[in-house]
Amino acid sequence: xxxxxxxxxxxxxxxxxxxxxKGIVLSEPSVAAYEKESGKLIAVGKKAxxxxxxxxxxxxxxxxxxxxxxxxxxxxxxxxxxxxxxxxKNMVFKPNVVVxxxxxATSLEKRTILDLVTSSGAAKACxxxxxxxxxxxxxxxxxxxxxxxxxxxxxxxTDIAVITMGCxxxxxxxxTAGNALDEAIVRQIRRExxxxxxxxxxxxxxxxxxxxxxxxVELGMTVKGxxxxxNMPVSIEVSSTEAYLAMRPHLETIGEAVRSVLELTPPELxxxxxxxxxHLTGGGALLxxxxxxxxxxxxxxxxxxxxxxxxxxxxxxxxxxxxxxxxQNGYVFKARNExxxxxxxxxx
Length: 348
Description:
By secondary structure, the protein is an alpha+beta fold. The chain contains eleven helices and 19 strands. 46% of the residues are buried.
């Protein structure tokens, strides 16, 4: 195919772009900022993210991805077009793009993303499931008849899949992931401490003192927010135990989802997973002790990938270098004029 090959991890919280021959060239938050009156796009990515929660009434900040799928078509198109034009500004031909989607995305959601990418400047687009890309990016060879289990904990969804011979055998996607953990911390502090904190502050708490099991030595950190009753600025001390108690129900949901996929896995593939273990990718895999929590829940050895944040984007690059294998398994590039004839059952 003519044109540069590009892989995009179109995530709920961030967009990571892989360019064939160059590697990962861009990693930015999935955020756009607009002037309210004119509707003019004024910032994308990190610049827009810095405005979140601090923007004046004249500026609207949008997070256009929700649970791994598009909730604001126009804003997502603006973000993609901005990044693609930035990457491809000196290229003669339009790029060919591989984009990741949640494993349980519907036909309509898949068609929307194909529409979106081709209208944003791609010559042709191909969709690949996130756990399959994550497995490739983690260095797990999936072209042999051997079962591998991958758990990709992103911002909006947790994708769990058993992969064999380059295809997904059993999968499940739950809308409980990093963002849900942040929201749980916000609710916990508001309910128990009468203090309102923002999403960014909750994310910092999760990253610095968050845990999947009670720590032997409790940690604490000072955060600033607004008192729920007086509306005055306050500073409070938050403990790792508080963060854990807030996140525990969601962590249980993720653990149960992993168990449910294992229960549905054919016995021959289950025996392979017992040997190779469960592999964690995505930003959620960095939460302290989450591998031990899942191992305790399932009884199967669980490990975190070397670079969990980049696995999906690196996997799109790996897929691009094996386009023939992709096409053999039904993953085909489509131009904009071919999307209308998409078979609704093609990639379900």
